[in-house]
Amino acid sequence: MTALLMIATWGTQAHALSTRQSGPGFDLAAGLGMGGAPVRAGLGGQLSAGWWTGRYDEAYALGRYWWVGVTGRVDTPFDGATVAPMLEIRRGVEVLVGGLHGFVSGGPVQFVVSEGPAPALGWTARAGVAGKFRRSRFVGLTLRLEGGANVVAGKPSAVVGVLVGLSYARPASKVQR
User: Fold this and answer.
1) Considering 10, 26, 111, 123, which has the largest number of Cβ atoms within 10 A of its Cβ?
2) How far apart are CA 71 and CA 69, in angstroms?
3) How many CB atoms lie within 10 A of CB 91?
4) pTM for this prediction
5) CATH of 26-171, one of 3.30.1490.20, 2.40.160.20, 3.30.70.980, 3.40.50.720
6) Alpha helix locations (H) across the chain?
């Protein structure tokens, strides 16, 4: 299965009727996460905005793409919150009504506590996979699984998340070759 996924998402061959397309993409999701030291569960949310480019057939139903953008994460364990604006890079494939992409992201992380001084600004790095079930030509339901680490004041802590949401992507241009 892993080999098939790698071939599908990283290959260079394209469908004969495809054209290069690109456009904006947005994601909004909410779910559960765990992290911190000691590990705590909490609720989380994600908002992503970026630009994708890839080769698709004219019906926008089959193709591979790259996506680069910003992703904001807010996680709320019971004693405060973490805010993490990150740069994210995705590589994915869309096949008719389904899609799958892998991603890496990273950026600063800030803990917001309800009492006392806030800890120092830290860094986070995350990787994961997301699946999409397209309900219309441009909108789909998503399931995102991610894991990584936060490092604040030299102390690393693991983070994991499972989020369910909506995705919007629309071609804004076709580049003729």
Assistant:
1) 111
2) 7
3) 16
4) 0.83
5) 2.40.160.20
6) 2-10
